[in-house]
Amino acid sequence: MPIHEKSLIRPENLRVHDKLVLDGIDVSGHWSTFVEPRVVTDYNERLQEEIAALPGGEHIHRCWQCGSCTNSCTVNAVNPDFNPRYWIYLIRMGMESELLRDKEIIWQCVSCNKCTYACPRDVFPEGVMKATAHWLELEGHTPQSKSSMFDAEFTEQVVATGKIEEGRIIRGFFKRSGQPLMQPWLIEMAKRLARHLPLKMGFLMGIAAVVRPRTRGWGRAKAALEDYIAGQERAQKSALGLGAPVAPAKGAVHAAPGAER
Ligand code: SF4
Ligand code: SF4
Fold this sequence. Notes:
- By secondary structure, the protein is mostly helical.
- Helix content is 48%, strand content 6%.
- It contains twelve helices and four strands, in the order E-E-E-E-H-H-H-H-H-H-H-H-H-H-H-H.
């Protein structure tokens, strides 16, 4: 598919002649702009399958490149380089090295889901952005993001106790991400909470921070959750060629690359 957006052409690939006359016609300046041809040789033919194997990426094969996601995108409005439609195109084409050139901005999706509502094909572009950011981390192209660290802390706490305790999550997240616990905004929030929080609730929160309560009878649910998470992680790594192959579950239906619904 031709790409019509000038923002997608790398500046180093543009050639402009300050002085150029062709067949007696002066085409100096931007009239003589050419795009340097290039050959892509390093296709990753499994790229779409790899993204589709991660949560959120399942429906990437449905995209028909209408551009509604990019047109409606909150981040694209302030940074034209943030382009979900283009990245989905690269993934479907297997153009991994081209995708990697934008690896530093893909994580910037703010999950506003405007693209999700705009997409006529139910691709869930927000999910594809998350899956792509996850893929970049799993493949070691980017370090673990703070968002992933928060998710890991949250999941660990839920699995361990069947409950969440906000203060513990914040502390654990700051520790994982190397941030100091005493941050001005947090201190200000604590002060306001102390002013307005009912005494009983403040007391219960204090107790929960110390004793770490657990949901009654959580043991069996915990084991089932751990089993499920481990299975999902194995399947995802296997799809990315990072672990032992995992046989698909009985009755599981996988969309073939390029298949339409
Ligand atoms: S969810 Fe992400 S990709 Fe979608 S519109 Fe919002 S910022 Fe853009
Ligand atoms: S709105 Fe949906 S179909 Fe259109 S380009 Fe974006 S993901 Fe593809």
